[in-house]
Specification:
mainly alpha, two-stranded parallel sheet, 2 helices, elongated
């Protein structure tokens, strides 16, 4: 799994917070649902202001789309 969080004019503290949230969400909610695949998550600017619940829901929707395409 890889997580890409561009700067989007935010500090390193903000970027690391988004990375930690996304890594944990993907580890707990997404990876167990998928077959053995490599996953790369790229954060959008809205990820900086999104709460953990909103990020989790977006990741779950993405996981559903991946499963539907397979």
């Amino acid at each position: 799994m890889g997580v890409i969080v561009p700067r989007y004019s935010h500090s390193a503290v903000d970027r690391n917070r988004v990375k930690r949230r996304l890594r944990e969400i993907v580890r707990i909610d997404v990876l167990p649902e998928l077959p053995n695949v490599d996953v790369v998550v790229r954060a959008l600017p809205s990820a900086y202001v999104a709460g953990a619940a909103e990020l989790r829901e977006q990741c779950r929707r993405a996981c559903s789309r991946i499963q539907g395409a397979a």
